[in-house]
Amino acid sequence: MKRLLLLIFLFISINTPIFATQNTKYNFDAEYKKATEQNSAEAQNHLGYMYQYGQNVKQDYAKAIEWYQKSANQNYADAQVNLGYMYNYGIGVKKDLLKAKQLYEKAASSGYALGLFSLGALYEFAEKKHYRKGIEQNSDNNTISQNYVKAKDFYEKAVQLGNKEAQNNLGGFYYSGIVVKKSYTKARQLYEQAAKQGNMYALHNLANMYYNGLGGLKKDFAKGVELDTQSAQSGNPEAQYSLGWLYYNGSWFEKDYTKARVWFQLAAEQNHANSQYNLGIIYQQGLGVAKDIYTAKHYFQQACQNNYQEACKHVKNIL
């Protein structure tokens, strides 16, 4: 069976909710009682989470912020990070990177690993500095600019505390040689640490290292597929795309357009442009499904909106 060389994709948890108990279900009445009658900071944070994600209540960002703020005022680190996340991305509030930074710093000052990670991610993914007529300027008034050195320092501190998100991100720095000497071995070690804790991005990154035989690993597609399956089932769109491609291309599995479509669909629902484009091709050509030009155009348009240029060409040429 032929082997397909896959590219290494480095994705991190910055694009996911930064919340330590993300998969926990809460009882609204019980949490509300503790939050109001006992002034429980933990319960107030839980209420904020429930309102933010619409868990057992109608989604309401304003109420989420209100409860996070009450909890953060009691120096509850989880709430400080969660409230910082809202300001970081402008969710229910005007985007304010300085405010996010202040909240992350408060959480980090208590030795909270997610606070340190969040500071690292803030600096890694902030916009680069802009220059005009020799004067350094930022793209907004938040005065937070991309700084890989600071990001690395915060990631390293979080890694020392065993934070899986930071392990994965720092692994990305070593893989790409960002402000550190490039080392696939060091990257693999960090991905392995994060993967053992179930980080879905690290599982995918490690899978790609097995596909390509990097970091001292022998090429092992079976192991790579195993890891990618775990990652995909946890909701990582990159891993979902990888599995879809393996079915689509017949590079490991028997070629199966139906299974490919299922995985592409899961990733496309998370705005994965490559998957949206491939779905367009599947419906345009009737691969494992009846031809449907209108559905094809729908996916091409989505991919085009996500800056997949080849999809834009199809949008222009399709009916």
Could you give a quick summary of the protein structure above?
The protein has 319 residues and is an all-alpha fold. It has 16 helices and 2 strands.
Describe this structure in words.
This protein has 319 residues and is mainly alpha-helical. It folds into two domains: 187 residues, Serine Threonine Protein Phosphatase 5, Tetratricopeptide repeat (Alpha Horseshoe); 85 residues, Alpha Horseshoe (Serine Threonine Protein Phosphatase 5, Tetratricopeptide repeat), CATH 1.25.40. The chain contains 16 helices and two strands. Strand 1 and strand 2 form a beta hairpin. Helix 2 packs antiparallel against helix 3 and helix 12 runs antiparallel to helix 13. The N terminus is likely disordered.
Key phrases:
319 residues; mainly alpha; Serine Threonine Protein Phosphatase 5, Tetratricopeptide repeat; 2 domains; two-stranded antiparallel sheet; 16 helices; globular; disordered N terminus
What is the strand tally? 2
Provide the low-confidence segments as ranges.
1-21
Mean pLDDT: 90
Please tell me the total number of domains: 2
Rg value = 22 Å
- The shape, in one word, is globular
Distance between the termini: 38 Å
According to CATH, the homologous superfamily of the largest domain is Tetratricopeptide repeat domain
* Percentage of residues assigned to helices: 55-70%
Strands in their spatial order, largest beta sheet: 1-2
Structural class of the helix and strand makeup?
mainly alpha
Give a short account of the largest sheet.
2 strands, antiparallel
CATH topology of the largest domain: Serine Threonine Protein Phosphatase 5, Tetratricopeptide repeat
Q: Supply the CATH architecture of the largest domain.
A: Alpha Horseshoe
* Element order: H for helix, E for strand: HHHHHHEEHHHHHHHHHH
- Beta percentage is under 5%
| Level-1 CATH class name of the largest domain | Mainly Alpha
Q: Count every helix, treating DSSP H or I runs of 4 or more residues as helices.
A: 16
